[in-house]
Design goal:
The complex is a heterodimer of chains A (330) and B (341).
Chain A lengths: L5 E12 L6 E12 L3 E5 L6 H7 L8 E12 L2 E4 L5 H7 L4 E4 L13 H11 L5 H14 L4 H5 L8 H12 L6 E5 L7 H18 L2 E6 L2 H7 L2 E6 L2 E7 H7 L3 H8 L49 E4 L2 E3 L10
Chain B lengths: L9 E15 L6 E15 L3 E5 L6 H8 L7 E6 L9 H10 E4 L13 H11 L6 H14 L5 H4 L9 H13 L5 E5 L7 H18 L2 E6 L2 H7 L4 E6 L2 E7 H6 L4 H9 L5 H6 L42 E4 L2 E3 L11
Parallel strand pairs in B: 3-7, 3-8, 5-6, 6-7
Antiparallel strand pairs in B: 1-2, 1-4, 8-9, 9-11, 10-11
Helix pairs in contact in B: 3-4, 3-6, 4-6, 6-7
The chains are: A alpha/beta (330), B alpha/beta (341).
Chain lengths: 330, 341
Amino acid sequence: MARGEKVLTVEKLSIDYISRRGPVQAVRNVSFDLYAGENLCIIGESGSGKTTMGMSLVKLSPPSAVIKKGTILYTLGGKEYDVRSMSEAQLRAFRWKEVAMVFQGALNAFNPVIRIKKQFLDTGWAHNMKDNKEILRRSEELLRFVQLDPKRVLNSYQHELSGGMKQRVLIAMSLLLNPKILIMDECTSALDILTQRTIINLLKKIKEEMGIAFIFVSHDLSLAAELADRIVTIYAGRVVEMGTTEDIFKNAVHPYTRGLIKATPTVTGNEEGLTSIKGTPPDLIRLPAGCKFNPRCEFPTTQCYQEEPELVSIGKDHYVACLKADQSRD
Amino acid sequence: MSPASKPTSPVIELKNLVKSYNVRSGVMGKSRELRILENISFTLNRGEILSIVGESGCGKTTVGKVAAGIIKPTSGEILYEGKNPWTLPKHEFTEYRRKVQMIHQDPYQSLNPVQRIYDIISAPLFRHKKVKNYKEAREKVKELLQRVDLSPVDDFIDKNPHQLSGGQRQRVAIARTLTVDPEFIVADEAVSMLDISIRLSVVDLMLKLKEDLGVTYLFITHDLAIAKYFGKGGRIAVMYLGRIMETGPTLEIIHNPMHPYTRILLSSIPEADPEKTRSKKHIQLRSLDIPSLMDLPKGCKFHPRCPLWLAGKCDQDEPSLQEASPGHWVSCFNPQSGPVA
């Protein structure tokens, strides 16, 4: 794949939640890049820190989440935005205009007492769009793009729309200011199969026609298989493997990534070799020593209990954090 | 007429079952009938698995609740071991309730947060007089925890639910249903909330219980891949707007779906294999919106969305389930055949 310019650099990002039992290490030393027009999928299970990471990319994490170190740097339209040092006012202008985000509770994202039309207008006004006609023209165009009837939708309240429709309205709204990056957290998990398919096809269309870069945060491998150009697997707040979709599905090296693929049944595939990963996800307050995956790993060595592996390159664009990366390959 | 099955002893039979509610729109509005289930019939034999798949709002949970005796059907018959539980004397109804247990979707809500695992599992043991005293109860609880692979048992027995992970909680929920030696388990989205990495281990546990204890399952899910994995040797029923559109042996439904709705579902599912999922041919729906139960279309309920509908036929008459090949029943005027992907 021809690669665009680098639009986002995340480097050595660490985030803790303050809790009574001690710091919850939700994100630990995470680094990755995003390139223009690329579709990056962040895969992890519940409690792996993926949502915390997604939120922090636009500095929306709750007050109890403390960014301990690291940089989040956007390079958009020749300008650099260092999210960590931006003021609240700067962030307000930056969010949605440059980077739009659709989060898990997307279906609760609307104000229940104003019409959808007003919400589109509000969004425009907040970002210095003065001409109401222009905002509405653009809104109608976008609603048609997501296969909705603009006349009906604009005059509705949120409770008059179904879950799939709300999701599509929100996607339309996220495109109102022509953002360059769209962050989506579990954007299809609460939807039915047929609605999910509509959204997936829509996102493909957005990527092709508008050249927007996507960051998907999901637990769903099949979604990644369908949409991603590159995949980042995270476990216990850390990147354990990163590579192209092909690398991950065909030549995964980390036992966790391999385990996840083996644990996902498919409709057309056969059941041979399907199995769960033993054990349970770790407690992010009391992480095990050494490699955090060692209690669940099939072939840990003594070294795995002492030393936490660094993310190292094992091929073009393919990185893995495993001490036994050489042996665990096919 | 009901989809045929082998003439061994049926555990549960549903015959032309209808469930409807009266709803009123507004304070002064007229009361109208909302039909949730329409003419549902199926038979489940001992040790069999029937998976019910469908989208939200199709009535699959209601079918489960009717089968478990939690909801009383409006009309039609439910027979458990040949007897209609709703006409049984009270003590026999209690016995039926004991034999039929449910596993719910959310293990974060189905377990009492202020009780210890021991309390949660021992309560039904005392209630149904399976044990006499604390010592016996403790032994029995340990045995059950062992059975659902929560070991070492002593690590779990005195914990509260919040100290366990989702998968462990669901195992506790399963152990609780096993306290009363159920014969028939209704599992309503029992694994959909669990993390992928441990989902299959809970499914495998449920399959093991079927082998060891001969439990019969009604497995309700929206996930066809899990339905296929869990119910390989069983049957699937695909529901849409309160009706069974197609039913048959699991692998037959997956590899030779006949109803356009089943075919669209199968073609729409993304799969965890980039090559396969990106080369899938998607069948387009005519309309994206599901009709409201309050305002159902005439004729086949799927025709407003069906790409293969026959004008003048599908919008006039409603098809009924017909046996297309042995055990494979489909309710469609224009059935297809062959694999979809």
